[in-house]
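Technical annex B. To support the medicinal chemistry partners, we prepared a structural model of the target in complex with zinc ion, based solely on the information shown next.
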Amino acid sequence: MSHPAPSPRLVALLRERTPLLVLTGAGVSRESGIATFREAGGLWEGVDPAEVATPEAFARDPRRVWCFYDARRRQGAQASPNPAHRAIASLEETGRPFLLATQNVDGLHERAGSRAMVRLHGSLWRVRCTGCGDEWEDDRPAIDPLPPACACGAILRPAVVWFGEALPQQAFAQAQAMARRASLCLVVGTSAVVYPAAALPEAALAAGAYVVEINPEPTPLSPFASEVLAGPAGEILPALLEAAA
Ligand code: BV8
Ligand code: ZN
Protein backbone atom coordinates (compact mmCIF):
# COMPACT_ATOMS: atom_id res chain seq x y z
CA MET A 1 0.00 0.00 0.00
CA SER A 2 1.63 3.31 -1.05
CA HIS A 3 1.85 6.02 1.57
CA PRO A 4 2.45 9.74 1.38
CA ALA A 5 6.16 10.54 1.13
CA PRO A 6 7.55 12.74 3.91
CA SER A 7 8.37 16.30 2.86
CA PRO A 8 12.05 17.28 2.41
CA ARG A 9 11.56 19.59 5.45
CA LEU A 10 10.52 16.64 7.62
CA VAL A 11 13.42 14.47 6.36
CA ALA A 12 15.85 17.31 7.15
CA LEU A 13 14.37 17.80 10.64
CA LEU A 14 14.65 14.07 11.34
CA ARG A 15 18.32 14.18 10.35
CA GLU A 16 19.03 17.11 12.69
CA ARG A 17 20.05 16.60 16.32
CA THR A 18 17.48 19.08 17.62
CA PRO A 19 14.91 18.18 20.33
CA LEU A 20 12.22 15.70 19.31
CA LEU A 21 8.94 14.97 21.11
CA VAL A 22 6.83 11.96 20.17
CA LEU A 23 3.24 11.76 21.48
CA THR A 24 1.43 8.44 21.02
CA GLY A 25 -2.08 7.09 21.52
CA ALA A 26 -3.86 3.78 21.10
CA GLY A 27 -3.39 3.80 17.31
CA VAL A 28 0.31 2.99 17.68
CA SER A 29 -0.68 -0.38 19.24
CA ARG A 30 -3.40 -1.11 16.68
CA GLU A 31 -1.02 -3.19 14.52
CA SER A 32 -0.14 -5.20 17.61
CA GLY A 33 -3.77 -6.32 17.67
CA ILE A 34 -4.83 -4.08 20.54
CA ALA A 35 -8.19 -2.32 20.12
CA THR A 36 -8.27 1.47 20.14
CA PHE A 37 -10.99 3.35 22.03
CA ARG A 38 -12.99 5.47 19.66
CA GLU A 39 -12.89 3.57 16.40
CA ALA A 40 -15.50 1.12 15.20
CA GLY A 41 -15.01 -2.04 17.25
CA GLY A 42 -13.05 -0.02 19.79
CA LEU A 43 -13.09 -0.32 23.55
CA TRP A 44 -15.71 2.39 23.95
CA GLU A 45 -18.08 0.65 21.56
CA GLY A 46 -20.83 -0.73 23.79
CA VAL A 47 -18.98 0.36 26.92
CA ASP A 48 -19.62 3.78 28.43
CA PRO A 49 -16.26 5.17 29.66
CA ALA A 50 -18.18 6.63 32.62
CA GLU A 51 -18.97 3.04 33.62
CA VAL A 52 -15.40 1.72 33.56
CA ALA A 53 -12.88 4.58 33.45
CA THR A 54 -13.82 6.97 36.27
CA PRO A 55 -13.21 6.88 40.03
CA GLU A 56 -16.99 7.04 40.54
CA ALA A 57 -17.47 3.90 38.42
CA PHE A 58 -14.81 2.12 40.47
CA ALA A 59 -16.40 3.18 43.77
CA ARG A 60 -19.78 1.99 42.47
CA ASP A 61 -18.68 -1.36 41.07
CA PRO A 62 -14.96 -2.22 41.44
CA ARG A 63 -15.47 -5.70 40.07
CA ARG A 64 -17.01 -4.41 36.81
CA VAL A 65 -14.13 -1.98 36.33
CA TRP A 66 -11.61 -4.71 37.10
CA CYS A 67 -13.24 -7.01 34.52
CA PHE A 68 -12.74 -4.29 31.89
CA TYR A 69 -9.06 -3.87 32.79
CA ASP A 70 -8.41 -7.56 33.29
CA ALA A 71 -9.65 -8.20 29.73
CA ARG A 72 -7.19 -5.55 28.50
CA ARG A 73 -4.39 -7.14 30.53
CA ARG A 74 -5.10 -10.50 28.92
CA GLN A 75 -5.12 -8.85 25.45
CA GLY A 76 -1.94 -6.91 26.27
CA ALA A 77 -0.16 -10.05 27.50
CA GLN A 78 -0.81 -11.66 24.10
CA ALA A 79 0.40 -8.65 22.12
CA SER A 80 3.91 -7.79 20.94
CA PRO A 81 5.46 -4.47 19.94
CA ASN A 82 5.00 -3.70 16.24
CA PRO A 83 7.33 -1.84 13.82
CA ALA A 84 5.88 1.51 14.97
CA HIS A 85 6.97 0.88 18.58
CA ARG A 86 10.38 -0.26 17.39
CA ALA A 87 10.85 2.75 15.10
CA ILE A 88 10.03 5.10 17.99
CA ALA A 89 12.46 3.24 20.27
CA SER A 90 15.21 3.61 17.64
CA LEU A 91 14.57 7.37 17.42
CA GLU A 92 15.83 7.85 20.98
CA GLU A 93 19.19 6.33 20.07
CA THR A 94 20.13 9.21 17.76
CA GLY A 95 21.70 11.17 20.64
CA ARG A 96 19.33 14.12 20.15
CA PRO A 97 17.25 15.46 23.09
CA PHE A 98 14.27 13.09 22.91
CA LEU A 99 11.09 12.31 24.84
CA LEU A 100 8.26 9.89 24.16
CA ALA A 101 5.02 10.88 25.93
CA THR A 102 2.50 8.08 25.64
CA GLN A 103 -1.18 7.99 26.56
CA ASN A 104 -1.04 4.22 26.24
CA VAL A 105 -1.05 1.94 29.26
CA ASP A 106 -0.26 -1.34 27.42
CA GLY A 107 3.51 -1.37 28.07
CA LEU A 108 4.40 -2.05 24.43
CA HIS A 109 6.70 0.98 24.11
CA GLU A 110 8.70 -0.27 27.10
CA ARG A 111 8.84 -3.78 25.61
CA ALA A 112 10.10 -2.30 22.30
CA GLY A 113 13.01 -0.74 24.20
CA SER A 114 11.81 2.84 24.75
CA ARG A 115 13.43 4.34 27.86
CA ALA A 116 13.29 8.13 27.41
CA MET A 117 9.57 8.18 27.99
CA VAL A 118 6.77 9.27 30.30
CA ARG A 119 3.41 7.54 30.76
CA LEU A 120 0.73 10.24 30.86
CA HIS A 121 -2.15 7.88 31.72
CA GLY A 122 -0.40 5.33 33.92
CA SER A 123 0.09 1.62 33.31
CA LEU A 124 -2.10 -1.45 32.94
CA TRP A 125 0.76 -3.38 34.61
CA ARG A 126 0.79 -1.40 37.87
CA VAL A 127 -1.73 -1.58 40.73
CA ARG A 128 -2.34 0.84 43.58
CA CYS A 129 -3.92 0.18 46.96
CA THR A 130 -7.02 2.28 47.67
CA GLY A 131 -6.22 1.99 51.37
CA CYS A 132 -2.51 2.37 52.11
CA GLY A 133 -1.66 3.92 48.72
CA ASP A 134 1.14 1.43 47.97
CA GLU A 135 1.74 0.97 44.22
CA TRP A 136 3.69 -1.79 42.49
CA GLU A 137 4.23 -3.68 39.23
CA ASP A 138 1.84 -6.57 38.73
CA ASP A 139 2.29 -8.28 35.36
CA ARG A 140 0.05 -11.31 35.97
CA PRO A 141 -1.85 -11.86 32.65
CA ALA A 142 -5.01 -12.60 34.63
CA ILE A 143 -5.89 -11.61 38.18
CA ASP A 144 -8.11 -13.84 40.30
CA PRO A 145 -10.15 -13.09 42.30
CA LEU A 146 -11.36 -9.68 41.14
CA PRO A 147 -11.09 -7.12 42.62
CA PRO A 148 -7.65 -8.02 44.09
CA ALA A 149 -6.90 -7.06 47.68
CA CYS A 150 -3.86 -5.54 49.31
CA ALA A 151 -2.17 -7.13 52.34
CA CYS A 152 -3.64 -4.22 54.30
CA GLY A 153 -7.11 -5.51 53.42
CA ALA A 154 -8.17 -2.69 51.09
CA ILE A 155 -8.92 -3.36 47.42
CA LEU A 156 -6.41 -2.58 44.68
CA ARG A 157 -7.13 -0.44 41.62
CA PRO A 158 -5.40 -0.29 38.24
CA ALA A 159 -2.72 2.45 38.41
CA VAL A 160 -4.14 4.24 35.38
CA VAL A 161 -5.49 7.81 35.08
CA TRP A 162 -9.29 7.83 34.86
CA PHE A 163 -11.47 10.64 33.56
CA GLY A 164 -11.64 13.42 36.12
CA GLU A 165 -8.28 12.38 37.62
CA ALA A 166 -5.12 14.45 37.36
CA LEU A 167 -2.26 13.19 35.23
CA PRO A 168 0.98 12.30 37.04
CA GLN A 169 2.36 15.76 37.68
CA GLN A 170 6.03 15.05 36.98
CA ALA A 171 5.32 13.10 33.78
CA PHE A 172 3.09 15.81 32.34
CA ALA A 173 5.50 18.60 33.33
CA GLN A 174 8.33 16.75 31.52
CA ALA A 175 6.16 16.40 28.41
CA GLN A 176 5.16 20.07 28.52
CA ALA A 177 8.79 21.16 28.85
CA MET A 178 9.78 19.10 25.82
CA ALA A 179 6.78 20.41 23.84
CA ARG A 180 8.10 23.93 24.40
CA ARG A 181 11.67 23.19 23.26
CA ALA A 182 11.07 20.63 20.50
CA SER A 183 11.87 21.55 16.91
CA LEU A 184 9.92 18.48 15.74
CA CYS A 185 6.89 16.76 17.27
CA LEU A 186 5.48 13.49 15.90
CA VAL A 187 1.87 12.82 16.96
CA VAL A 188 1.18 9.14 16.32
CA GLY A 189 -2.09 7.23 16.60
CA THR A 190 -4.19 9.52 18.75
CA SER A 191 -7.65 10.98 18.15
CA ALA A 192 -6.36 14.12 19.92
CA VAL A 193 -9.57 14.60 21.93
CA VAL A 194 -8.43 13.73 25.46
CA TYR A 195 -6.99 16.59 27.47
CA PRO A 196 -4.59 17.64 28.79
CA ALA A 197 -2.48 15.22 26.63
CA ALA A 198 -4.06 16.66 23.47
CA ALA A 199 -2.77 20.11 24.48
CA LEU A 200 0.84 18.98 23.99
CA PRO A 201 0.89 19.26 20.17
CA GLU A 202 -0.83 22.65 20.50
CA ALA A 203 1.93 23.77 22.88
CA ALA A 204 4.59 22.48 20.47
CA LEU A 205 2.99 24.36 17.55
CA ALA A 206 2.75 27.54 19.63
CA ALA A 207 6.47 27.23 20.44
CA GLY A 208 7.31 26.94 16.74
CA ALA A 209 7.77 23.17 16.40
CA TYR A 210 7.10 21.35 13.15
CA VAL A 211 4.20 19.07 14.17
CA VAL A 212 3.57 15.93 12.11
CA GLU A 213 0.44 13.82 12.54
CA ILE A 214 0.70 10.11 11.66
CA ASN A 215 -2.79 8.63 11.54
CA PRO A 216 -4.91 6.92 8.86
CA GLU A 217 -7.83 9.19 9.82
CA PRO A 218 -8.19 12.96 10.22
CA THR A 219 -8.44 14.31 13.78
CA PRO A 220 -9.14 17.77 15.30
CA LEU A 221 -5.34 18.30 15.15
CA SER A 222 -5.08 17.64 11.39
CA PRO A 223 -5.97 21.17 10.18
CA PHE A 224 -3.27 22.65 12.45
CA ALA A 225 -0.53 20.10 11.86
CA SER A 226 2.52 21.20 9.85
CA GLU A 227 2.31 17.91 7.94
CA VAL A 228 -0.05 14.91 7.94
CA LEU A 229 1.14 11.44 6.92
CA ALA A 230 -2.12 9.54 6.50
CA GLY A 231 -1.56 5.84 7.06
CA PRO A 232 -0.81 3.12 9.61
CA ALA A 233 2.07 3.97 11.94
CA GLY A 234 3.59 0.49 11.58
CA GLU A 235 4.26 1.27 7.92
CA ILE A 236 4.67 5.06 7.94
CA LEU A 237 7.27 5.27 10.74
CA PRO A 238 9.74 2.69 9.40
CA ALA A 239 9.47 4.32 5.94
CA LEU A 240 10.06 7.73 7.50
CA LEU A 241 13.20 6.56 9.32
CA GLU A 242 14.45 4.94 6.13
CA ALA A 243 13.93 8.19 4.17
CA ALA A 244 15.95 10.05 6.82
CA ALA A 245 18.72 7.44 7.15
C1 BV8 B 1 -8.38 15.66 33.84
C2 BV8 B 1 -7.80 5.54 31.15
C3 BV8 B 1 -8.63 17.25 35.60
C4 BV8 B 1 -6.61 4.72 30.96
C5 BV8 B 1 -8.22 7.47 29.79
C6 BV8 B 1 -16.09 16.62 31.22
C7 BV8 B 1 -16.13 15.88 32.39
C8 BV8 B 1 -14.98 15.32 32.97
C9 BV8 B 1 -13.75 15.53 32.37
C10 BV8 B 1 -13.73 16.26 31.19
C11 BV8 B 1 -14.87 16.81 30.61
N1 BV8 B 1 -14.51 17.47 29.48
C12 BV8 B 1 -13.16 17.36 29.32
C13 BV8 B 1 -12.69 16.64 30.37
C14 BV8 B 1 -11.31 16.29 30.59
C15 BV8 B 1 -11.13 14.84 30.16
C16 BV8 B 1 -11.23 14.78 28.64
O1 BV8 B 1 -10.35 15.26 27.96
N2 BV8 B 1 -12.34 14.21 28.14
C17 BV8 B 1 -12.53 14.18 26.70
C18 BV8 B 1 -12.93 12.77 26.26
C19 BV8 B 1 -13.58 15.21 26.34
N3 BV8 B 1 -9.80 14.52 30.60
C20 BV8 B 1 -9.65 14.02 31.83
O2 BV8 B 1 -10.54 13.73 32.58
C21 BV8 B 1 -8.19 13.88 32.26
N4 BV8 B 1 -8.06 14.40 33.58
O3 BV8 B 1 -8.72 16.47 33.02
O4 BV8 B 1 -8.29 15.92 35.18
C22 BV8 B 1 -8.06 17.38 36.95
C23 BV8 B 1 -7.02 18.26 37.16
C24 BV8 B 1 -6.52 18.41 38.44
C25 BV8 B 1 -7.03 17.66 39.50
C26 BV8 B 1 -8.06 16.74 39.26
C27 BV8 B 1 -8.59 16.59 37.98
C28 BV8 B 1 -7.80 12.40 32.29
C29 BV8 B 1 -7.64 11.90 30.89
C30 BV8 B 1 -7.22 10.44 30.90
C31 BV8 B 1 -8.44 9.60 30.89
N5 BV8 B 1 -8.07 8.21 30.84
N6 BV8 B 1 -8.13 6.15 29.87
C32 BV8 B 1 -6.99 3.60 30.05
O5 BV8 B 1 -7.98 2.91 30.37
O6 BV8 B 1 -6.33 3.45 29.02
S1 BV8 B 1 -8.59 8.18 28.30
C33 BV8 B 1 -8.35 7.16 26.97
O7 BV8 B 1 -8.31 8.03 25.82
C34 BV8 B 1 -7.01 6.44 26.97
O8 BV8 B 1 -6.19 6.77 28.05
C35 BV8 B 1 -6.35 6.93 25.70
O9 BV8 B 1 -5.00 7.01 25.88
C36 BV8 B 1 -6.96 8.27 25.55
C37 BV8 B 1 -6.82 8.90 24.20
O10 BV8 B 1 -7.35 8.00 23.24
P1 BV8 B 1 -6.39 7.64 22.00
O11 BV8 B 1 -5.15 7.04 22.55
O12 BV8 B 1 -6.24 8.82 21.13
O13 BV8 B 1 -7.21 6.48 21.30
P2 BV8 B 1 -8.48 6.68 20.33
O14 BV8 B 1 -9.13 5.34 20.19
O15 BV8 B 1 -9.29 7.84 20.78
O16 BV8 B 1 -7.82 7.08 18.93
C38 BV8 B 1 -6.99 6.15 18.25
C39 BV8 B 1 -6.46 6.85 17.03
O17 BV8 B 1 -5.55 5.96 16.38
C40 BV8 B 1 -7.53 7.19 16.01
O18 BV8 B 1 -7.36 8.54 15.60
C41 BV8 B 1 -7.26 6.24 14.85
O19 BV8 B 1 -7.53 6.84 13.59
C42 BV8 B 1 -5.78 6.03 14.98
N7 BV8 B 1 -5.28 4.77 14.41
C43 BV8 B 1 -5.93 3.60 14.23
N8 BV8 B 1 -5.11 2.69 13.67
C44 BV8 B 1 -3.89 3.30 13.55
C45 BV8 B 1 -4.00 4.62 14.02
N9 BV8 B 1 -2.97 5.49 14.02
C46 BV8 B 1 -1.79 5.04 13.53
N10 BV8 B 1 -1.60 3.78 13.07
C47 BV8 B 1 -2.62 2.89 13.06
N11 BV8 B 1 -2.43 1.65 12.59
ZN1 ZN C 1 -2.89 -1.50 51.10
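Notes passed to the chemistry partners:
The mean pLDDT is 96.
The longest strand covers residues 122-129.
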